[in-house]
Amino acid sequence: MNPSLVVRGQLQQAAAPVEIVVAGERIEAVRPARIGGNGPAVGGPDCLVAQGFLDIQVNGYAAVDFNRPELTAAELTRATEAMWRSGVTQFLPVVITAPVKRMLATLAAIARAREEAPTLRRAIPGIHLEGPFLAPDDGPRGAHPADSIRDPEWDLFRQFQDAARGLIRFVTIAPERPGAIGLISKLRQGGIVVGIGHSDAKETDIDRAVEAGAQISGHLGNGAHAMLPRHRNYIQKQLATDALMASLIADGHHLPSYVVKNMIRCKGLDRIILITDAMAAAAAPPGQYRLGEVLAEVGPDGYVRLPGTPYLAGSALTMDRAIANAARFAGLALEDAVRLATRQPRTLFAEAAGGVAPGERADLVVLREGPPLTVVATIVEGEVVYQQA
User: Fold this and answer.
1) Which of 52, 206, 278, 370 is most buried when burial is the number of CB atoms within 10 A of its CB?
2) What is the CA 47 to chain-centroid distance, rounded?
C-alpha cells in the first residue's frame, strides 16, 4: 500500500484551502487545511485541486502513434506517462479509419498492451472507434482515407469489438450513412456511447440519430465542409439540439477563439467536453508524424496539417493548454474550464466516474493558475506520478 499523502489546495477558486488525505489508492478524508501536519504533501493554498483529466479522444502522444498494429505496451505506457505532465490520468485511445485488417490489428494491439501493463489498465477505460462509418466526401471526411470509408454494419462492428476484447466504449458515426440509425440503436442498447461526427447529416438525420441514442457531437465545427448554408446546416442544428453534448478542440487552430466562446455559451457548461484530438506530434518537437496511414506535419505554431495543404490532421494540443485556452477564449473561471475535462466527460463514462471525495480513487491534478496555467502535480491511485521540478 502507498504511504499516506496529503494534497493541499482549493477545490473552488476563492474558497478556503483544504487538505485531501490519501491512504493507499483512495481518498480517506477532505478537511480544512491545517498549518503544518505530518507526512509528504503536494500543492499549497494557491493551488486548485481537481480530479485528474479524462481525454476521450487521443490518436497519439509524445511521438507515439496509437494507430499502428505494431503498437507495444512500452510505447503506449511512454505516451501515458507523458500525458501525466498535462494532468491527464485517463484517456480513450482512438482508432481511426483504415483498411479493416489494419483496424482489427490495431484494436488488438491496444487491447493486448492494456492487459500487459497495470499502468494502462488504470489509464484506459475504453477505446474510441472513429471510423470507418463516416461521410466519404472531402471536408466532412477530414483526414480519414477515402478508400477505407464504409457503410455502418453491425457484423463489422462486432468484429472490431471482438478484436478489442470488448474495450470499444465510444463510436463516432455519420448518421446519414445507410444502416447508421440501426447501428446507433444497437450500440446504445449495449451501453456504448455514440457520437455524431465526420458527417454531412441533414436535420432529420440528426433528429433520428438522437432518437436512436446518439449523445454527443464529436469535435463540433470540424470534420465539416469549408462552406455551409448560413442558417440551415448541421453545425447549427447540433448546437441547438439540447440532447447532444459537444466536444471541442480548443487549440486556436481547429476553431477560432470566438467560435469556442459562442459554442460554450450556446451549449452551456453542462454540455461541453474538451478534447485534444492529439496525435503523435503532441508533446513532441515540430516535424512529420504518422496518424495511421496518414502522414502529417506540425510546425512551430503547433498546427498539424496534411503536408502541402491547409487541412488539419489531428492536433498537437495538450489538455492543460486546452483548459487554459477555453478559459481565456470564453471568459471562464478556471474551475469551470477544468470541469470540461473532468466532470463533463465522466457523465458519459460511468467506469471513469469518481471525484474529489472520501472513498473515491485518488486520481488528482494540482494546478497553479498563472499565467501560464501550470500542472504542479499529477496523482494516480494515490501515487505522485508527476511533480513539477
Assistant:
1) 278
2) 24
How many whole angstroms separate alpha carbon 341 and alpha carbon 323?
8
Name the pairing type of β-strands 374-380 and 383-387.
antiparallel
Is the pLDDT at 1 greater than 50, yes or no? no
115-171 pLDDT per residue, tens? 999 999 999 999 999 999 999 999 999 999 999 999 999 999 999 999 999 999 999
Q: Interhelix angle for 203-212 vs 180-189, to 10°?
A: 20
CA 140 to chain centre: 20
3-state SS track over the chain: CCCCEEEEEECCCCCCCEEEEEECCEEEEEEECCCCCCCCEEEEEEEEEEECEEEEEECEECCEECCCCCCCHHHHHHHHHHHHCCCEEEEEEEEECCCHHHHHHHHHHHHHHHHHCHHHHHHCCCEEEECCCCCCCCCCCCCCCHHHCCCCCHHHHHHHHHHCCCCEEEEEECCCCCCHHHHHHHHHHCCCEEEECCCCCCHHHHHHHHHHCCCEECCCCCCCCCCCCCCCCHHHHHHHCCCCEEEEECCCCCCCHHHHHHHHHHHCHHHEEEECCECCCCCCCCEEEEECCEEEEECCCCCEECCCCCCECCECCCHHHHHHHHHHHHCCCHHHHHHCCCHHHHCCCHHHCCCCCCCCECCEEEEECCCCCEEEEEEECCEEEEECC
User: What's the pTM?
Assistant: 0.96
Torsion over CA: 321, 325, 326, 331 (sign): positive
Q: How does strand 88-96 pair with strand 127-130?
A: parallel
